[in-house]
Amino acid sequence: MHPEPDTASLPGVETRVLVVDDNADARGFLLRALGGAAMQVHAAASGNAALDALAHFAPDAVLLDVDMPGMDGFATCEALMNRHADLPVIFMTGLGDTGHIVRGFEVGGCDYVTKPVAIDEVVARVRSHAGKARQARALRDTVLRLYGESEAAPVSAVATPALTPREAEVMAWVARGKTNRDIADILGMSPRTVNKHLEHIFEKLGVETRTAAVAAARRSV
Question: Whole-angstrom Cα distance, residue 62 to residue 182?
Fold first, then answer.
């Protein structure tokens, strides 16, 4: 029996997917199925392995198992979001529990599929979310080009040691006067997730309003 490869690829691949699942059979199935759908796939057996993979693999989307030993799917999602705010994370769960689904959205997930997965559904969801994320990145890049260096300045101005990289990015757009809905569209996350980040930012900076948060962040640099 041949050992399971950790990457599957085909010429002309457009979508790169990181699959995170502690079950070897599940990883192998998704490698073959998504690779057959002209996607480039890297498989990781744990949350830590998924984070390590980001050093050499830049995914357009992540398929993430919820129930894993050690770092579970929720903790893994939060860690991924802190590194890449606009990375679409789709949870895979066989739990069928509404609480877990809600928790997945709270930590930054954009969607979920239930196990055993229907591969056509998975392919459609991955392509849809990856496409939206690319559009959001393109919009963000366009905004930065249009407004130039003076408008881009708030990005560095709010990157305080107290904030995670993702929180700093949210604050950068708050400093530009963007609403939660605007920020959600730009960063490819839900308004609810933006609000959660703002709650953490307010707590860290010891403020209660958006204006005070921007002022406090700028004073701390």
Answer: 23
158-219 matches 7-133 in CATH topology: no
Q: Which is more confidently placed, 8 or 188?
A: 188
Q: Which amino acid is at 130?
A: A
Spatial neighbors of 62 by CB under 8 A, at least 6 apart, are: 17, 18, 19, 20, 50, 80, 87, 88, 89, 90
**CB 108 within 8 Å of CB 189:** yes
SS3 43: strand
Q: Where are the domains of the chain?
A: 7-133, 158-219
State the burial class of residue 27 (Cβ atoms within 10 Å of its Cβ: 0-12, 13-18, 19+).
buried
Class of CATH domain 158-219: mainly alpha
Nearest residue to 105 via CA among 123, 91, 95, 87:
91
CATH level 2 (architecture), domain 7-133? 3-Layer(aba) Sandwich (3.40)
d(CA 76, CA 133): 19
Tokens of 84: 């890449």
- 90-109 pLDDT, tens digit each: 999 876 667 788 888 888 88
Name every residue whose Cβ is closer than 8 Å to that of residue 158 and which is 6 or more positions away in sequence: 168, 171, 172, 174, 175, 214, 217, 218, 221
* Predicted TM-score of the model (pTM): 0.64
